[in-house]
Description:
Layout: H1 2-14, H2 20-30, H3 32-54, H4 62-82, H5 85-99, H6 102-113, H7 115-160, H8 164-167
Amino acid sequence: LLLLTSVCSQFVIADTPPSDALVKELLTVTQPQKLLDQVMAQMDGVMQNSMLQAMPDQKLTPEQDSIMAEMRSKMVALIRESMSWEIMEPLYIDIYQKSFTQQEVEGILVFYRSDAGQAVIAKMPQVMQGTTQLTQTVLSTMMPKIQLLVRQSVEKLKASRVSPSDARTAVPIDES
């Protein structure tokens, strides 16, 4: 009976979600707030680049440029407000509690407290910046191809339209 109780309690412990305090400790050690702050600091530049890429051939008047800058500024402020740490922390806690068990978070904390774990934390912003730049480079070389595919598909869609008079005589496609 003692052995059975011991084995059953191990399964219960293994499935126990981590406490708020343990997840907060993990968030303190891994510093996602710092990474979020860095992303927010870069947000204005990212938004500006996105807007320029969305309108590559358009020259804006000073008034239009001012309107775009104001919109970008308001968007960045909205994103910063909506994604503040005060709003995000409870969401992080919930996600971690749904994703990890108490035992797993304890193990993760052991790693992040180690020298290797601290190196991951310290260097992750560089890794994220490098992967972001790499992704942007790949996407920018891919965009003309995507735009061509979209144009070709739109042309095919336009060409495939059947006029109302043709619809009466259209032959169904045999899909067998």
